[in-house]
Amino acid sequence: MGVISISRGALLGTLQRAFAGSLRAKRSAFLRDVSSMEGIQKNKLKSFLEANAGSRYGKEYGYGRVSSVEEYQRQVPIVDYDALASRIQSLAEGASHELSCEDVLMLERTGGSTATNKWIPYTQALKSEFSEATDVWMADLYANVPGLYGTTCYFALSPVGNLPRVSSGGLPIGFEDDAEYFHPLARWAWRRMMSVPSRVARQADMDLWRLETCRHLLADGHLGLLSVWSPTFLTGLLSYIERHFDTLLGQIPHDRALVLDSARRRAVRESRSLRAKEIWPKLALVSCWTDGISNCFAEPLRAFCGKEVVLQPKGLLATEGVVSFPLRTGPLMDANVVAYKSHFLEFLDLGNDTGADTTANTVASRKRPLLAHELREGGLYSPLLTTGNGFARYHLKDVLLCTGTWAGLPCLQFEGKADRTSDLFGEKINMRQVEKGLSLAREQTGATWRFALLAPTPPCSSDKHIQNPLSAPSLLTGAHVSNVPWHYELFLESDAPSDALERVSRVLESHLETGHHYAYCRRLGQLGPLKWRRVQNGQETFEASLAAQGLRAGTIKPSVLDTRSHWHSVFPSS
What we know:
The structure is a single chain. The chain is of the alpha+beta class and 574 residues long. It is 37% helix and 18% strand. The chain has 20 helices and 21 strands. A hairpin with a 6-residue loop joins strand 18 (470-473) and strand 19. Helix 8 crosses helix 9. The longest helix is centred in the N-terminal third of the chain and has 25 residues, at 8-32.
């Protein structure tokens, strides 16, 4: 009998058709049940209250006595992480049933406000709620991007470095990869389609992590899906591939290396960049953030993908929960639709007040939070999540614009942060972190100042590319990629000597690096080291600049953090 040879692509295609078939009914139900959105959301709340009435939090706020959405909104407070921090710390130390009646499976990191890290408890119920969205997303991809069949995928693998992996109470800390957001069957399928093995994430050395990641990606001629968070994560990997192209070619299969080398030589002869399809012929879709500040950072990926590869927005899928996710609404169109089957969702109606105080208590005191079916085109909203891990009315401090509806589903576009948080690449620097870091710097150096402001600064702040993170030609992306990344700059008005102010900046950065996300962006090279600049008439210049933009002088509040990237041109060097 002869040996039957089945190609890897055929095997992958068979697995994916079975996988997509198992999810197809979820997508159909999600689209079909839109007319019942209000009732589904109310049932979500009812199930949450019944499941968690016996928790410490549920007893404290009388979940068992709540019989309507209105009672829930009156009886249970809007909270942020700080309000839950002590309870979550108890869970990390081994307590149970603090927020929910279900056991905590693990803790995941995300950025903090008062603290530099937040720990989000994950229960099976919360993971199932994520799956309600991710399953529909994946089913939709296979239905509308048929080129994915027979291909592999890459979900961002974040290197763990030397971060703790277990809490003091024995709970695991941190996902191994983004496939953890899917249900068990989906995770089983995805990990057989992975281009880069999950073990690469356990590599503590950043240089070795980059090498292993890029080697696996470059060796994979079947790659069809790239899923990352910040677009700069992917452009950073592409930049590494370009700088080490010859070395990497020597570490991958010979036939694959010949194909890539030939493509590079052809691009050089024709004085153009390599196209995505020349590196990965089967690449069909790239998923990343494209809204808000990420829009400009996604531009080089748009050039790299061209018209042949879909660049799809990520939606608002946060560590705490999922508010929206993308669906294909046309041959070249995507929309981030509300995840009405995942959690019970409320939305603070911000109106036109995003320039004012948009904290939960201030907004909630003016207006009743809306439900998902009540969102209207043109409205600005900030979401409150009630999730399976016991978070009740948790304020996810993001600003969303409702851009309309598709198939009856409200479509949401990320506009920015509702609190004072700077988040270009996922670094999540909060004003309170900066205040704490400056306080530590004053204690440790003895330096004082009359004015201090931390703000992001683009890499080419002295030329015409001032608002573009790109500045020098790249063979891979065809964009202009600077060798000097974005960084944060500390503007100080002080009589202290320069060496003291240098120490101030080092103490501040050391404090910021205690935050997982800032440290991660620094290690990836998405952000350069923090710099400082001595300025004169700091507060007057700060207020005059904002007044020139239309803010009333009497309403401008002192701040040590601003998310705008123009301050290097506003403040002349002292």
